[in-house]
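Action item from last week, closing it out:
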Amino acid sequence: MFRFHYRLERSAIGLVAFIILVASIGGLVEIAPLFTIDETVEKAEDMRVYTPLEVAGRNIYIREGCYACHSQMIRTLRDEVDRYGPYSLAVESQYDHPHLWGSKRTGPDLARLGNKYSDAWHTAHLYNPRDLVPESKMPAYRWLLRDQLRIDDLGQHLAALRAVGVPYTDEQIANATQDAYGQANPDSIEASGVAERYGDATNIRQFDGQPSRLTDMDALVAYLQVLGTLTDVAHATQTAEVE
């Protein structure tokens, strides 16, 4: 084996050819599964896209580094399913750019967090985690309740997501700013348009408890409250497996 390696190193052309061969094998192993993508990724007819306010909240989630301590991928292990809920399916992340599956859990997995706790709970937890969980190591994010959310550029965010495959319509992109405001102000004229464009199941309410202002807290809580609720395919699939 070592003699072959020594002889190979003496031949520049042979070494380059061998590197190309090995790299090609590695590339084939990674690329080949893509040819069966239609068979391995589940279908979800009820899958909806994120609203502009939820997109803004997801951007804040990324900005604040929440993904570094929280995963969004429940594995098929029994203890994870018992604790967090149905294991994650690929289709649930089809509109996530980038994916936020995570690689470690300092805190719990958030894949099924949506509507598990109240908006007031999330607001209080983000403002000072130890008020609700005394042993929490999570830092406080008090500025989220103070900082006004920027919404004038959300149409551009939706347009960028459409460019990578998220099926936003021209109407959704054109009304992104109004829809972000309307989702956090249920008594406003803009609120009705949110339900029309994103469905009646969309959360439309004052997420941070401050009706006079639209804050970063509104957006982040709106995003957290939709995690795992964009489609019911995981629950339906795994209920069928049990039966």
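Closing note: Residues 12-31 form the longest helix (20 residues).
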